[in-house]
Amino acid sequence: MPTDVAVIIVNYGTPRMAIAAADSVLQRAPDGLSVEIHIVDNASPGDDREVLSEAAIRWGDGVTLHLEAVNHGFGRGNNLVLRQLAARPAPPDKVYLLNPDARLVTNAVAELAAFLDAHPRAGVAGSGIVDATTLKPVVCAFRFPGLVSEFSTALNVGPLYRMLKRWQVAFPPGIPRQEVDWVSGASMMARLSALAEVGFFDPDYFLYYEEVDLMHRMKRRGWEVWHLPEAKVAHIAGAATGVTSANPERRPLPGYWFDSWRFYFEKTHGRAGARVAALGRWIGTVLGDLQCRLRRKPVQNPQNFAADFRQRVLRPLFGAAPPSRPLTR
After folding, report:
1. Residue limits of the Glycosyltransferase 2-like domain (predicted)?
2. Which residue among 75, 169, 201, 263 is least crowded, i.e. fewest CB within 10 A of its CB?
3. CA-based Rg of the chain, rounded to a whole angstrom?
4. pTM of the predicted model, to two decimals?
């Protein structure tokens, strides 16, 4: 019998969390769905292989491990399984992408699947996400980024930010069910046929912006993207990467974040549009950092952001040789 939903969990350095995520799917309430789980380990440097392989003995045929020799990143890691599923004579109708640092709170698998069944033009449905400690809703539904949002986000001046609220990327936490531009890749279900139609994740991205790009291409093909707050998962943001807005040190962003920013804006806005957006982001950052220092308040942008953005985004966009490929982790 064909699988109804294939769940994909891409792991890097968080094997016990990945096990908990898989267990939350396996232990969900009975729903009549045929579900299979795939865990991709992206060549984690620790004992992830051993820990996951030991858990696989308990799981049996319900979970398939893909123990990779290289770190593919998020999109390419998912693509490994997505392409295998699509090549089957009877592929599953839906795929559910779940972060290893997330676990089901409600039966999000059944709830998202039922929504897609009832809405034939919905290509993606994302669940609500709550903080794993407080269980309060967190941001998980978004608008596509553009020039206005990039400038105001970097400048980070309260009155201006509020005045431009309709252009901000993130919707507030806890919004009701609605169609949006894109949803968090930490917990999203998609039609496999819709993903295949757009060629799955773009392999140019290592990490960050890959799901934004994916849903941008799907929306251009006429597919809808929906946010379903009643389906809930608990999420520990940044458990694998350490990149989180809640980090008080505002650590520098990794090199691949800047590469992904540049890829996304070039692919969606063209070279000229990417240049305008990049200048807006950089000028906003410089002005935002300056006003924080003048007011003797902590700088809100990540450390070295203006310098790193100039090196990794502005220079390549304006003709300088791009920097060498960054370390993947």
Report:
1. 95-233
2. 169
3. 20
4. 0.91
